[in-house]
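Let us work through a complete example step by step.
Step 1: write down the sequence.
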Amino acid sequence: MQKLISAMKKPGFSWPICEEAKAWKPGHEPFEDCPAGFQAGRASSGRDNDSLFGGGEANVCTKTVNQCSNRGAFRTLYGNERANQQAGITIRELNSNNDNGFGNSCQVVITQPRPMRADPYFFDIPNDKGVKERHWFNLNL
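Step 2: predict the structure and record it as tokens.
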């Protein structure tokens, strides 16, 4: 691994290719899948009307829930504001019926950081039956 990382630092480096194994340069996916029920999106930077699902890396997980349908379960999961802040979870109300825009909506969007992969690089290599299998790795020493 140290030889590979050293070689990567040199100008003109290109990944070694193994044609027999049909292994080309590695892929890179820095994020894990979102938890069940969440959808991958991109956090808005606040510039140029960035949308949650615009270009760039999908670095957050979001879901829309009805907090009124089961308030007890919702409070158990998201009722601790300090824990939400520590975990990077934000809750935004949709379609508020209140004049000041807060506090009266059942529909909320929950956004949390997308988990990072410990091994973000991969090779897709066909097995002996020709079915591609993904092999994950990292470049940490």
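Step 3: interpret the result. The radius of gyration is 21 Å.
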